[in-house]
Each structure stands twice: as structure tokens, then as C-alpha cells.
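Internal ticket #5521
Category: modeling
Description: The requester needs a full-assembly model to guide mutagenesis choices. All entity lines are attached below as received. Residue total reported by intake: 340.
Assigned to: D.W.
Attached entities:
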Amino acid sequence: MTGKDPAVGEGTGDGVVEPTWLVEVIVTPKTGVNDPQGEAIRGGLQSLGYAGVRGVRAGKVIRVELAAESAAAARASATEMADRLLANPVIESYHVSAVSPVGVDA
Amino acid sequence: MSDRIGVVSFPGSNGDTDALHALTGAVGVPARMVDHRETDLSGVAAVVVPGGFSYGDHLRCGAIARFAPVMAPLRAFAERGGPVLGICNGFQVLTEAHLLPGALLRNRTLRFHCFWTHVRFDGAPTAWTGQVADGAVLRLPVAHGEGAYYADDATLDRLEATGRVVARYCDAGGDAVGVANPNGSARGIAAIANAAGNVVGIMPHPERASDALIGGDDGLRLLRAALEFVNVPV
């Protein structure tokens, strides 16, 4: 993650324009939850000769562009989104993997 | 006045007309479609959340439907003890909404299952299963890609200990419970109930087994429970 705020308009105070951030949320099946998709991929890799493959877990990456005042605020917002909708905590774990500025020269 | 059964229709629902047809026709109970944007369920005696692919099953089955406007009054209705039956995608919606515990995962075969199954009902009585005798075996069709019931072991133990496992997959004779399990459901579970017994989720489709003409009418033994919910007969 970047700790540096991206450049945005010079606006401050009431007219402040929040910068846009690209946030990546990685969602995977929780440990112990059966993952037939990952099993199928593992079988495919082993068929290709990758004998060293011990396990595969298949999940999804969700990229969200959002306006927030800082990288930390964007991360906090994405974490809340993951808790509420992007992941189902009964079966999935998630990780907010990256926060990067979008449109620095905007 | 609670005078009819409500069948919720989300964008992508496809069991809604089937359920409405089975209720108003074969069962003979007044019912109406409830649009996903409705916010008032007054007059509704019970709710069926039907099967299909609400919101294209995007993100996760039932995940988007959970935030539809109708879900707020539906939640209040369920918490007041109102009878709610979630069928297939409706079951998935109810777990996403936390009105039922657990979740439904991809079938272990990775295939969409569309065939007839047998399920045995031997849980504690619920609002919807009063007419299904203890140990009754019904022949009902399934149509799902994500039907493998999952909950952690503590939750499964609690469901079993309190009779909240409403039905399990079995063979035609009512045996091989768990072995005949087509989709990899934990402990062969096909249907569960909430603690109060007014909310039931089931993966097989009772509304698609409502006429001998379409291969069977065992589903009516569940859906006829709706007759007890309306206080104004047809």
C-alpha cells in the first residue's frame, strides 16, 4: 500500500475533492470449507505434471474504486464492505490486499 | 387481515410463478406475487421466497437479494413469528440474510443438479412440516448448482440436537441417509429451520412436485401447510 496521498485538485475546506483509490479485496474459502473448484484446478495442475502441487484454493478478487480522504480511510471503507457484502464470513475469509491511487494527474 | 400467501419475486427468480401456481391451484389458497421493491407485507399470512437466480447469482447466491427493499419487512415478519419458506435460491437468500444459519456451497460435483431426489423429514415440527409425518419420505426435484449445505461443526451439532434438521437426502426407501446425498451437503442436509420453527429453508422444490402431470405431487404435503396460515378461505 502507498502511504502517499495522490495529487488531486487544490481544493481544501468545504469544496475538498476526495482522491480516488483502487482497492483490491481478495476473497477465499475459509480453511475447512470444501472447495470443489480449487480441487478441480489442483487435479488439472497435477495432470499437467505439476506433481509438487499440494493444494489449491479458488476465490475471487474484487477491485473497488472509491473516493476517500486517505489510503487508510479507503482501506477501512473496503474492510467494512467486505464484512457486510463482499465476503460471507460463514464460508469465506477476505484480505484487503492493496490500496493504490487512481488518476494521480487528474 | 392476513388473507393470502406472498410469493417474493426478485429479478432473476424463476420459481415464483411455479410457487404461485401451486399455491393458488393445487393447494387452493389465496396467494399473490410480492415485488422485491415492496416495503409493506401487511395482509400477508406467510411468505415463500422462491427459487431461481436472483440478481444473476452474482457475487454469491442470494447475496444481493438480501439487500432488496422487501427484505426489511420480511425480516420483521419472520422475527414476529410469521411463517417463511425459502426454496432453493430462497434458502440461499435466507442464509445470506442470517434468518437461517450456515450457507450453501458449490455442489461437490461442480455440476448443476437437475433431477428428482428423495428426502426424509424427521426433524422437530415446524410451521411448514406439520403435515409431514415424522420420517416421511417425499420425492422432490432439485435444480441447483450451489446446494451443498455448510455450517461449522458446532452449528451442525446444535441443529441436530434441537431437531432443526428438517430433511435429509435419502434413497427411495428412506434409507442411505447421507449416502444418497447428491451435492455434498454436510450430514446430508436438505432442509433446516430456525430456532422458532417458523422459518424453513429447503433445497428441493416442493412447488415443482405439485401435480402428477409433471411427475409427482409430493410437494403438496408441504405446501398444504399454507392452508392453516390464511384466516380467510378462498
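Resolution: model delivered.
Comment from assignee: The mean pLDDT of chain B is 94.
Ticket closed.
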